[in-house]
Amino acid sequence: MAKKEKKFTKAEWSWIFYDWANSIYATNIMAAIFPILYSQIAGKGTVGDHVYGYAVSFANLLVAVLAPYLGAIADFRGMKKKLWFGFMITGVVFTAVMGIVGDWKLMLIGFVISRIGFSGSCMFYDSFLTDVTTPNRMDEVSTWGFAMGYIGGSTIPFLISIGIMIMMNMSELSMRIAVLIVPVWWLVFSIPFMKNVHQVSYVDTPPSSLGKAAWKNTIGTFKSILKTKAIFFFLLAYFFYIDGVDTIISMATKYGDTLGLGSIGMILALVVTQVVAMPCSILFGKLSKKVGALKLITFSVLMYAFITIVGFSMGYIVDFNERLGLTPEKAISISQVLFWILATLVGTVQGGIQALSRSYFGQLIPPERSGEYFGFMDIFGKFACVIGPALYELFYWLTGKACFGILSIILLFILGFLFLTVGKKHFRVAEHAEM
Q1: Scanning 24, 60, 209, 348, which has the fewest C-beta atoms within 10 Å of its C-beta?
Q2: What CATH class has 10-196+209-434?
Protein backbone atom coordinates (compact mmCIF):
# COMPACT_ATOMS: atom_id res chain seq x y z
CA MET A 1 0.00 0.00 0.00
CA ALA A 2 2.75 2.44 0.95
CA LYS A 3 4.52 1.83 -2.35
CA LYS A 4 1.39 2.53 -4.39
CA GLU A 5 0.66 5.66 -2.37
CA LYS A 6 3.89 7.28 -3.59
CA LYS A 7 2.94 6.99 -7.27
CA PHE A 8 0.77 9.58 -8.93
CA THR A 9 -2.65 8.35 -10.02
CA LYS A 10 -3.97 8.84 -13.57
CA ALA A 11 -6.14 11.72 -12.33
CA GLU A 12 -3.16 13.36 -10.58
CA TRP A 13 -0.94 13.01 -13.67
CA SER A 14 -3.68 14.37 -15.92
CA TRP A 15 -4.16 17.33 -13.58
CA ILE A 16 -0.38 17.93 -13.53
CA PHE A 17 -0.32 17.82 -17.33
CA TYR A 18 -2.57 20.86 -17.66
CA ASP A 19 0.36 22.90 -16.32
CA TRP A 20 2.38 21.37 -19.18
CA ALA A 21 -0.39 22.47 -21.56
CA ASN A 22 -0.99 26.08 -20.46
CA SER A 23 2.44 27.23 -19.26
CA ILE A 24 3.46 28.12 -22.80
CA TYR A 25 0.91 30.96 -22.60
CA ALA A 26 2.65 32.36 -19.53
CA THR A 27 6.04 32.20 -21.30
CA ASN A 28 5.38 33.15 -24.92
CA ILE A 29 2.44 35.52 -24.37
CA MET A 30 2.71 37.01 -20.89
CA ALA A 31 6.46 37.09 -20.34
CA ALA A 32 8.72 36.85 -23.36
CA ILE A 33 7.62 37.09 -26.98
CA PHE A 34 4.23 38.77 -27.32
CA PRO A 35 5.23 41.89 -25.29
CA ILE A 36 8.15 42.44 -27.71
CA LEU A 37 5.98 41.82 -30.79
CA TYR A 38 3.29 44.13 -29.45
CA SER A 39 5.82 46.85 -28.65
CA GLN A 40 7.12 46.67 -32.23
CA ILE A 41 3.61 46.91 -33.71
CA ALA A 42 2.37 49.65 -31.36
CA GLY A 43 5.68 51.59 -31.32
CA LYS A 44 7.85 52.38 -28.29
CA GLY A 45 6.71 55.32 -26.20
CA THR A 46 3.36 55.62 -28.02
CA VAL A 47 -0.12 55.53 -26.50
CA GLY A 48 -0.39 51.89 -27.54
CA ASP A 49 2.86 51.07 -25.75
CA HIS A 50 1.83 52.73 -22.48
CA VAL A 51 -1.70 51.30 -22.47
CA TYR A 52 -0.34 47.73 -22.42
CA GLY A 53 0.11 47.68 -18.62
CA TYR A 54 -3.39 49.01 -18.12
CA ALA A 55 -4.78 46.30 -20.44
CA VAL A 56 -3.15 43.66 -18.23
CA SER A 57 -4.78 45.29 -15.20
CA PHE A 58 -8.18 45.42 -16.93
CA ALA A 59 -8.10 41.71 -17.84
CA ASN A 60 -7.18 40.81 -14.27
CA LEU A 61 -9.90 43.09 -12.89
CA LEU A 62 -12.61 41.51 -15.05
CA VAL A 63 -11.68 37.97 -14.00
CA ALA A 64 -11.49 39.11 -10.37
CA VAL A 65 -15.03 40.52 -10.46
CA LEU A 66 -16.44 37.28 -11.91
CA ALA A 67 -14.30 34.78 -9.97
CA PRO A 68 -16.28 34.26 -6.71
CA TYR A 69 -19.62 33.94 -8.50
CA LEU A 70 -18.23 31.56 -11.14
CA GLY A 71 -16.46 29.62 -8.38
CA ALA A 72 -19.77 29.20 -6.54
CA ILE A 73 -21.45 27.88 -9.71
CA ALA A 74 -18.49 25.53 -10.27
CA ASP A 75 -19.11 23.80 -6.93
CA PHE A 76 -22.47 22.49 -8.13
CA ARG A 77 -22.53 19.00 -9.59
CA GLY A 78 -21.09 18.79 -13.13
CA MET A 79 -20.38 22.52 -13.52
CA LYS A 80 -16.66 22.81 -12.76
CA LYS A 81 -15.49 20.89 -15.84
CA LYS A 82 -17.84 22.82 -18.16
CA LEU A 83 -16.60 26.19 -16.91
CA TRP A 84 -12.96 25.12 -17.15
CA PHE A 85 -13.50 23.98 -20.75
CA GLY A 86 -15.29 27.20 -21.74
CA PHE A 87 -12.52 29.43 -20.46
CA MET A 88 -9.79 27.20 -21.90
CA ILE A 89 -11.31 27.27 -25.41
CA THR A 90 -11.81 31.05 -25.19
CA GLY A 91 -8.13 31.46 -24.35
CA VAL A 92 -7.03 29.18 -27.18
CA VAL A 93 -9.17 30.90 -29.83
CA PHE A 94 -8.24 34.48 -28.97
CA THR A 95 -4.55 33.65 -28.64
CA ALA A 96 -4.74 32.50 -32.24
CA VAL A 97 -6.44 35.81 -33.13
CA MET A 98 -3.49 37.73 -31.59
CA GLY A 99 -1.06 35.97 -33.92
CA ILE A 100 -3.10 36.74 -37.04
CA VAL A 101 -4.36 40.35 -36.81
CA GLY A 102 -2.12 43.27 -37.79
CA ASP A 103 -3.60 46.25 -35.94
CA TRP A 104 -2.26 46.83 -32.40
CA LYS A 105 -5.74 47.65 -31.09
CA LEU A 106 -7.12 44.29 -32.28
CA MET A 107 -4.03 42.55 -30.88
CA LEU A 108 -4.67 44.19 -27.51
CA ILE A 109 -8.36 43.18 -27.52
CA GLY A 110 -7.33 39.61 -28.38
CA PHE A 111 -4.76 39.70 -25.58
CA VAL A 112 -7.29 40.88 -22.98
CA ILE A 113 -9.85 38.19 -23.91
CA SER A 114 -7.24 35.44 -24.19
CA ARG A 115 -5.81 36.39 -20.80
CA ILE A 116 -9.32 36.20 -19.32
CA GLY A 117 -9.64 32.70 -20.81
CA PHE A 118 -6.22 31.68 -19.47
CA SER A 119 -6.85 33.09 -15.98
CA GLY A 120 -10.35 31.62 -15.73
CA SER A 121 -9.23 28.15 -16.80
CA CYS A 122 -6.37 28.28 -14.29
CA MET A 123 -8.78 29.20 -11.49
CA PHE A 124 -10.94 26.12 -12.12
CA TYR A 125 -7.83 24.01 -12.69
CA ASP A 126 -6.50 25.03 -9.27
CA SER A 127 -9.82 24.16 -7.60
CA PHE A 128 -9.67 20.64 -9.11
CA LEU A 129 -6.64 19.99 -6.85
CA THR A 130 -9.00 18.97 -4.04
CA ASP A 131 -10.77 16.54 -6.42
CA VAL A 132 -7.70 14.69 -7.71
CA THR A 133 -5.66 14.19 -4.54
CA THR A 134 -5.62 14.16 -0.74
CA PRO A 135 -4.46 16.97 1.62
CA ASN A 136 -1.20 15.22 2.54
CA ARG A 137 -0.25 14.89 -1.17
CA MET A 138 -1.28 18.39 -2.28
CA ASP A 139 2.14 20.07 -1.89
CA GLU A 140 3.86 17.39 -3.97
CA VAL A 141 1.18 17.22 -6.69
CA SER A 142 0.99 21.02 -6.93
CA THR A 143 4.76 21.54 -7.15
CA TRP A 144 5.07 18.77 -9.75
CA GLY A 145 2.43 20.60 -11.77
CA PHE A 146 4.57 23.72 -11.89
CA ALA A 147 7.71 21.66 -12.52
CA MET A 148 6.14 19.92 -15.53
CA GLY A 149 4.84 23.25 -16.71
CA TYR A 150 8.30 24.78 -16.66
CA ILE A 151 10.20 22.00 -18.38
CA GLY A 152 7.54 20.79 -20.82
CA GLY A 153 4.99 23.53 -21.19
CA SER A 154 7.47 26.39 -21.21
CA THR A 155 10.98 25.27 -22.10
CA ILE A 156 10.36 22.88 -25.02
CA PRO A 157 7.95 25.06 -27.07
CA PHE A 158 9.82 28.16 -25.94
CA LEU A 159 13.08 26.79 -27.38
CA ILE A 160 11.24 25.85 -30.58
CA SER A 161 9.93 29.43 -30.76
CA ILE A 162 13.41 30.87 -30.20
CA GLY A 163 14.87 28.60 -32.88
CA ILE A 164 12.26 29.78 -35.40
CA MET A 165 12.87 33.44 -34.54
CA ILE A 166 16.66 33.12 -34.83
CA MET A 167 16.40 31.33 -38.19
CA MET A 168 14.07 34.07 -39.42
CA ASN A 169 16.25 36.91 -38.03
CA MET A 170 13.75 37.91 -35.32
CA SER A 171 11.30 39.07 -37.97
CA GLU A 172 7.72 40.01 -37.20
CA LEU A 173 6.53 36.86 -38.98
CA SER A 174 8.74 34.67 -36.78
CA MET A 175 7.24 36.20 -33.63
CA ARG A 176 3.73 35.67 -34.98
CA ILE A 177 4.56 32.00 -35.57
CA ALA A 178 5.80 31.81 -31.96
CA VAL A 179 2.46 33.24 -30.82
CA LEU A 180 0.51 30.73 -32.96
CA ILE A 181 2.43 27.79 -31.47
CA VAL A 182 0.72 28.61 -28.15
CA PRO A 183 -2.92 27.73 -28.94
CA VAL A 184 -1.92 24.49 -30.70
CA TRP A 185 0.25 23.27 -27.80
CA TRP A 186 -2.30 24.42 -25.21
CA LEU A 187 -5.23 22.61 -26.83
CA VAL A 188 -3.44 19.33 -27.65
CA PHE A 189 -1.99 18.81 -24.18
CA SER A 190 -5.28 19.68 -22.47
CA ILE A 191 -6.72 16.36 -23.72
CA PRO A 192 -5.61 14.24 -20.69
CA PHE A 193 -7.32 16.72 -18.36
CA MET A 194 -10.50 16.57 -20.48
CA LYS A 195 -10.56 12.75 -20.31
CA ASN A 196 -9.37 11.88 -16.80
CA VAL A 197 -10.08 14.72 -14.37
CA HIS A 198 -13.55 14.77 -12.82
CA GLN A 199 -15.37 16.71 -10.14
CA VAL A 200 -15.53 14.48 -7.05
CA SER A 201 -16.56 16.97 -4.35
CA TYR A 202 -19.61 19.09 -5.08
CA VAL A 203 -22.78 20.71 -3.75
CA ASP A 204 -26.19 19.57 -4.99
CA THR A 205 -28.73 22.15 -6.13
CA PRO A 206 -31.60 22.23 -8.62
CA PRO A 207 -30.55 23.81 -11.98
CA SER A 208 -33.50 26.22 -11.76
CA SER A 209 -32.05 27.87 -8.64
CA LEU A 210 -28.40 27.77 -9.74
CA GLY A 211 -27.89 31.53 -10.01
CA LYS A 212 -29.67 32.38 -6.77
CA ALA A 213 -27.90 29.63 -4.85
CA ALA A 214 -24.52 30.67 -6.25
CA TRP A 215 -25.02 34.26 -5.12
CA LYS A 216 -26.14 33.12 -1.65
CA ASN A 217 -23.16 30.77 -1.33
CA THR A 218 -20.75 33.49 -2.46
CA ILE A 219 -21.90 35.79 0.33
CA GLY A 220 -21.78 32.93 2.84
CA THR A 221 -18.23 31.98 1.84
CA PHE A 222 -17.07 35.59 2.10
CA LYS A 223 -18.45 35.79 5.67
CA SER A 224 -16.76 32.49 6.49
CA ILE A 225 -13.42 33.82 5.19
CA LEU A 226 -13.73 36.89 7.42
CA LYS A 227 -14.37 34.68 10.46
CA THR A 228 -11.66 32.11 9.69
CA LYS A 229 -8.51 34.03 10.64
CA ALA A 230 -6.02 31.62 9.03
CA ILE A 231 -7.71 31.88 5.61
CA PHE A 232 -8.26 35.64 5.99
CA PHE A 233 -4.64 36.51 6.83
CA PHE A 234 -3.29 34.12 4.22
CA LEU A 235 -5.44 35.71 1.50
CA LEU A 236 -4.37 39.21 2.59
CA ALA A 237 -0.71 38.21 2.34
CA TYR A 238 -1.37 36.45 -0.96
CA PHE A 239 -3.13 39.57 -2.27
CA PHE A 240 0.10 41.53 -2.07
CA TYR A 241 2.90 39.09 -2.75
CA ILE A 242 1.29 37.33 -5.73
CA ASP A 243 0.69 40.76 -7.26
CA GLY A 244 4.43 41.35 -7.20
CA VAL A 245 5.12 37.91 -8.69
CA ASP A 246 2.59 38.40 -11.50
CA THR A 247 3.86 41.91 -12.26
CA ILE A 248 7.45 40.71 -12.62
CA ILE A 249 6.29 37.91 -14.94
CA SER A 250 4.18 40.28 -17.05
CA MET A 251 6.54 43.25 -17.25
CA ALA A 252 10.06 41.72 -17.27
CA THR A 253 10.78 41.77 -21.01
CA LYS A 254 8.90 45.04 -21.51
CA TYR A 255 11.06 46.59 -18.79
CA GLY A 256 14.24 45.20 -20.36
CA ASP A 257 13.12 46.39 -23.79
CA THR A 258 12.56 49.88 -22.35
CA LEU A 259 16.15 49.88 -21.08
CA GLY A 260 17.44 48.93 -24.53
CA LEU A 261 18.52 45.37 -23.70
CA GLY A 262 18.75 42.97 -26.64
CA SER A 263 15.63 40.90 -27.35
CA ILE A 264 17.50 37.64 -28.00
CA GLY A 265 19.55 38.00 -24.81
CA MET A 266 16.44 38.61 -22.71
CA ILE A 267 14.59 35.67 -24.22
CA LEU A 268 17.55 33.33 -23.68
CA ALA A 269 17.83 34.53 -20.08
CA LEU A 270 14.19 33.57 -19.58
CA VAL A 271 15.02 30.06 -20.79
CA VAL A 272 17.35 29.90 -17.78
CA THR A 273 14.36 30.82 -15.58
CA GLN A 274 12.39 27.84 -16.92
CA VAL A 275 15.29 25.37 -16.60
CA VAL A 276 16.14 26.45 -13.04
CA ALA A 277 12.46 26.54 -12.02
CA MET A 278 11.79 22.88 -12.85
CA PRO A 279 14.08 21.21 -10.25
CA CYS A 280 13.49 24.02 -7.75
CA SER A 281 9.72 23.48 -7.90
CA ILE A 282 10.16 19.77 -7.15
CA LEU A 283 12.64 20.62 -4.39
CA PHE A 284 10.09 22.97 -2.78
CA GLY A 285 7.55 20.12 -2.76
CA LYS A 286 10.00 17.81 -0.98
CA LEU A 287 11.24 20.49 1.44
CA SER A 288 7.68 21.39 2.43
CA LYS A 289 7.41 18.02 4.22
CA LYS A 290 10.44 18.87 6.37
CA VAL A 291 10.37 22.67 6.66
CA GLY A 292 6.69 23.44 6.10
CA ALA A 293 5.00 25.17 3.18
CA LEU A 294 4.48 28.43 5.05
CA LYS A 295 8.18 28.94 5.83
CA LEU A 296 9.06 28.32 2.18
CA ILE A 297 6.41 30.80 1.02
CA THR A 298 7.81 33.43 3.40
CA PHE A 299 11.36 32.78 2.20
CA SER A 300 10.20 33.19 -1.40
CA VAL A 301 8.54 36.53 -0.63
CA LEU A 302 11.82 37.84 0.83
CA MET A 303 13.73 36.52 -2.19
CA TYR A 304 11.36 38.40 -4.50
CA ALA A 305 11.97 41.61 -2.55
CA PHE A 306 15.68 41.13 -3.27
CA ILE A 307 14.91 40.39 -6.93
CA THR A 308 13.08 43.72 -7.14
CA ILE A 309 16.20 45.49 -5.88
CA VAL A 310 18.29 43.71 -8.54
CA GLY A 311 15.77 44.87 -11.15
CA PHE A 312 15.99 48.44 -9.89
CA SER A 313 19.80 48.34 -9.99
CA MET A 314 19.64 47.12 -13.58
CA GLY A 315 17.54 50.11 -14.63
CA TYR A 316 19.36 52.63 -12.44
CA ILE A 317 22.66 51.84 -14.17
CA VAL A 318 21.10 52.55 -17.58
CA ASP A 319 19.05 55.60 -16.54
CA PHE A 320 21.86 57.25 -14.56
CA ASN A 321 24.93 55.96 -16.41
CA GLU A 322 26.55 59.44 -16.63
CA ARG A 323 26.23 59.98 -12.89
CA LEU A 324 27.94 56.61 -12.37
CA GLY A 325 30.71 57.49 -14.86
CA LEU A 326 29.66 54.80 -17.36
CA THR A 327 29.21 54.97 -21.11
CA PRO A 328 25.73 53.97 -22.37
CA GLU A 329 27.23 50.82 -23.93
CA LYS A 330 28.93 49.81 -20.67
CA ALA A 331 25.75 50.49 -18.69
CA ILE A 332 23.69 48.27 -20.99
CA SER A 333 26.35 45.55 -20.84
CA ILE A 334 26.25 45.50 -17.02
CA SER A 335 22.45 45.53 -17.05
CA GLN A 336 22.37 42.54 -19.39
CA VAL A 337 24.46 40.57 -16.88
CA LEU A 338 22.11 41.65 -14.08
CA PHE A 339 19.12 40.54 -16.16
CA TRP A 340 20.63 37.03 -16.35
CA ILE A 341 21.17 37.04 -12.58
CA LEU A 342 17.60 38.25 -12.08
CA ALA A 343 16.24 35.51 -14.40
CA THR A 344 18.15 32.84 -12.44
CA LEU A 345 16.94 34.12 -9.06
CA VAL A 346 13.34 34.23 -10.27
CA GLY A 347 13.66 30.60 -11.40
CA THR A 348 14.61 29.46 -7.89
CA VAL A 349 11.36 30.65 -6.30
CA GLN A 350 8.74 31.36 -8.98
CA GLY A 351 7.31 27.84 -9.26
CA GLY A 352 7.65 27.13 -5.56
CA ILE A 353 5.77 30.17 -4.30
CA GLN A 354 2.89 29.67 -6.74
CA ALA A 355 2.60 25.91 -6.21
CA LEU A 356 2.82 26.00 -2.41
CA SER A 357 0.39 28.93 -2.20
CA ARG A 358 -2.10 26.84 -4.17
CA SER A 359 -1.64 23.66 -2.14
CA TYR A 360 -1.43 25.40 1.27
CA PHE A 361 -4.72 27.17 0.57
CA GLY A 362 -6.24 23.87 -0.59
CA GLN A 363 -5.41 22.38 2.80
CA LEU A 364 -7.15 25.22 4.65
CA ILE A 365 -10.53 25.00 2.85
CA PRO A 366 -13.44 22.51 2.73
CA PRO A 367 -13.03 20.37 -0.45
CA GLU A 368 -16.72 20.45 -1.44
CA ARG A 369 -16.53 24.26 -1.68
CA SER A 370 -13.14 24.37 -3.44
CA GLY A 371 -14.43 26.19 -6.53
CA GLU A 372 -15.90 28.94 -4.41
CA TYR A 373 -12.88 29.33 -2.14
CA PHE A 374 -10.44 29.24 -5.04
CA GLY A 375 -12.70 31.83 -6.69
CA PHE A 376 -12.03 34.09 -3.73
CA MET A 377 -8.34 33.26 -3.88
CA ASP A 378 -8.46 34.26 -7.52
CA ILE A 379 -10.27 37.52 -6.76
CA PHE A 380 -7.64 38.38 -4.15
CA GLY A 381 -4.91 37.52 -6.63
CA LYS A 382 -6.46 39.25 -9.63
CA PHE A 383 -7.52 42.41 -7.80
CA ALA A 384 -3.98 42.58 -6.48
CA CYS A 385 -2.66 42.15 -10.03
CA VAL A 386 -4.60 45.24 -11.02
CA ILE A 387 -2.29 47.21 -8.71
CA GLY A 388 1.14 45.93 -9.81
CA PRO A 389 1.27 46.79 -13.54
CA ALA A 390 -0.57 50.08 -12.89
CA LEU A 391 1.88 50.89 -10.07
CA TYR A 392 4.82 50.24 -12.41
CA GLU A 393 3.37 52.44 -15.16
CA LEU A 394 2.45 55.20 -12.69
CA PHE A 395 5.94 55.52 -11.17
CA TYR A 396 7.51 55.20 -14.62
CA TRP A 397 5.27 58.02 -15.88
CA LEU A 398 5.80 60.26 -12.81
CA THR A 399 9.59 59.94 -12.79
CA GLY A 400 10.29 59.24 -16.46
CA LYS A 401 12.59 56.43 -15.26
CA ALA A 402 11.62 52.78 -15.62
CA CYS A 403 13.85 51.78 -12.69
CA PHE A 404 11.56 53.58 -10.22
CA GLY A 405 8.59 51.79 -11.74
CA ILE A 406 10.15 48.41 -10.96
CA LEU A 407 11.32 49.53 -7.50
CA SER A 408 7.74 50.41 -6.53
CA ILE A 409 6.87 46.68 -6.72
CA ILE A 410 8.91 45.99 -3.54
CA LEU A 411 6.07 47.54 -1.52
CA LEU A 412 3.88 44.58 -2.44
CA PHE A 413 6.39 42.03 -1.12
CA ILE A 414 6.91 43.99 2.10
CA LEU A 415 3.15 44.02 2.77
CA GLY A 416 2.86 40.32 1.89
CA PHE A 417 5.63 39.48 4.38
CA LEU A 418 3.97 41.57 7.12
CA PHE A 419 0.61 39.80 6.79
CA LEU A 420 2.28 36.37 6.77
CA THR A 421 4.06 37.35 9.99
CA VAL A 422 0.93 38.77 11.67
CA GLY A 423 -1.15 35.70 10.76
CA LYS A 424 1.44 33.16 11.90
CA LYS A 425 -0.37 32.18 15.12
CA HIS A 426 -3.62 31.55 13.23
CA PHE A 427 -1.79 29.42 10.66
CA ARG A 428 -0.35 27.28 13.47
CA VAL A 429 -3.84 26.67 14.89
CA ALA A 430 -5.17 25.67 11.44
CA GLU A 431 -2.22 23.34 10.80
CA HIS A 432 -2.72 21.70 14.20
CA ALA A 433 -6.44 21.20 13.44
CA GLU A 434 -5.52 19.48 10.14
CA MET A 435 -3.35 17.01 12.03
Answers
A1: 209
A2: mainly alpha
